[in-house]
Amino acid sequence: MNQPVTPAGELMADYHAAWLPWEAFSAIGSRRSAIHGEGLLADTVRREVEDACARFGGATGADEDAELVLALYSWSALPAAAEKLRNSVAEDPGDEGFVLARQDGVTVLLAGGPAGLLYGFFHLVRLGEAAFGADHPPRTHRPVMRRRMLDHWDNVAVHDVMGQVERGYAGGSIFWSDGALTKDPARVRAYGRLLAASGANAVSVNNVNVHAVEARLLTDRLDDVASVADELRPYGIGVYLSVNFASPIMLGGLPSADPLDPAVQDWWARTTARVHRRIPDFGGYVVKADSEGQAGPFAYGRSHAEGANMLAAALAPYGGVVYWRAFVYNHRQDWRDRSTDRARAAYDHFAPLDGQFADAVILQVKYGPIDFQPREPVSPVLAAMPNTRLAVEVQVTQEYTGQQRHVCYLAPLWREVLGFRPWGASGATVADVAAGTGPGGSPGGGGGGLVAVSNVGDDRFWTGHPLAQANLYAFGRLAWDPSLDPSAILDEWIDLTFTRGADGVPDQLRHTLHAIMDDSWRTYEHYTAPLGVGFMVNPGDHYGPSIDGYEYTQWGTYHFADRNGIGVDRTQATGTGFTAQYPHPWSSTYESPHDCPDELLIFFHHVPYTHILHTGATVIQHIYDTHFAATQRVHEIRSQWQKIHNVGLVDSDLHARVAERLNEQARSAEEWRDQINSYFLRKSGISDALGRRIY
Ligand code: GCV
User: Fold this and answer.
1) Looking at 258, 393, 399, 432, which residue is catalytic?
2) If both were cysteines, with which of 113, 394, 526, 669 could 95 make a disulfide (CB 3.0 to 4.6 Å apart)?
3) Residue 650 sits in which domain range?
């Protein structure tokens, strides 16, 4: 076969296409296009369009009869259709933005910069034939969040029990292999392409727990990082490194890593300068300090602001930033001491430092106060630091949401977090805070954006569970526009991933995927730990139920179930006082067991099993009902998926992978149901009102 092979074509051939199968390019590839722009990203777009045209019979380069014009807003000699659009729009849409119009039968996309050209191109891919329908006036698109980053918890070498990718459920790292740089750089490029098509624009390439081997990425293994950056750059993905705070000792031979020591500051300045010489567009550092055994400024009696600012000073001359994580807590707690509350920790450590961080610091805050549980209240830190640039961190990798063995579409969870209004109904949202448009305006010159722990590995389907690809896609889309509806994002993903032929996605497949995925987070929540209590997982690997697994440990994650009731009293009146970390009205809503939303009740309160929820059910009956119903639901979705196979609507290997995972999900859901229900029957002595079987 003498088909022209272009880079985009190779990428599609060798890896699972995910949301970029060839069919997604047919609308563009079958038309005549003109592209006006220069630079690396413009070249990427040109190559993408040429590649699609080679496959679908279109052509590039013809201005006069072009049906599609892609151009930079600032381009001097625009074809007539684009010139007309430029004259009609008031302003340049910004670096990553673009204006799209269809007029006189020509689709015109004017981008503010090369990145906008790239995002505009992928927007057209999403629209497909709809981009070439009826005329419409100019519509401007630009990302709400400037910073949209995936963190990889990848180790260069396999590291003890965590394996190569900490909390990774999709094989090994795509960046590193056998202690070295991957021998499959095209996979890195293909990943960058998928990310760009979702809207993400940055990647951190190693685990935040920075071990000795990984620490060296900063110095003598910098060439490896540069190689990864080279692969990602054509798709506009910037590269960041997780660094060990003790690097001056580990790598520089200094006696200390004290952030106020001039020798330490000098070491970071020189090291960072070298990084920027090698990777001129290097994004910056990610730091986990004084957390779960990682080094940090506390060892020198310094604050986290002093630690972060030192790194900011080294990065700022090059436009880099440090993402400093707020996940700091005592992981050696005495479980007998009920006054210590892990939920309080991030606020207690960081809120007093508001206003002390340098402009080049972004404080990266997990969405909940504990740790990526399926249900937590939004972290109060996000409402407590108006003078600090804040990023919201979520987990695409499903550490606590089924480890890519269970279907759990997470966009509804993230959407809920981003839409939460910490100051009440008329106040700003969490998305506003992350975008830098919340109270306090734009500290440090812009929001910290949205960060997620990636769920990708070298697995054939990228994400282990093929349906977990939707989470990666949805992350990029919500970072671009946090107001998007999760169900609409799912439709986009379905259209891109499963369209075959001119008729689009068959209704039966679309309905089945919605039935399986739309409520899958809620279903997962309902067959696992109840009412926001969290952490009833097996210690260590965090998979499957172990109700008391963490109850008498040092980790600070307890449920306090006894024969009378369950939950953690975090009230001001009688508990740990955590509710006071929220602004009004949430401080009083959470303080009251009667006002507190049901789904968070036992996160905030220790209540009797007979406590009546807003639904009218008692707590104990709710536990039984949700566990029976959600497990039943998993069985239903498993048979729905089977029906899809019977009529041949998806590739058989993808079908088989999902089917195998659904079997495990059904087994695991039953295990959760039976252990949770039996545990609470035995603790409470209260039978199920419906007399169902509990062991
Ligand atoms: C990378 C949780 C995970 C850890 C992870 C940590 C973090 O505790 O279980 O594996 O460490 O979060 O976010 O730093």
Assistant:
1) 399
2) 113
3) 526-568+606-684
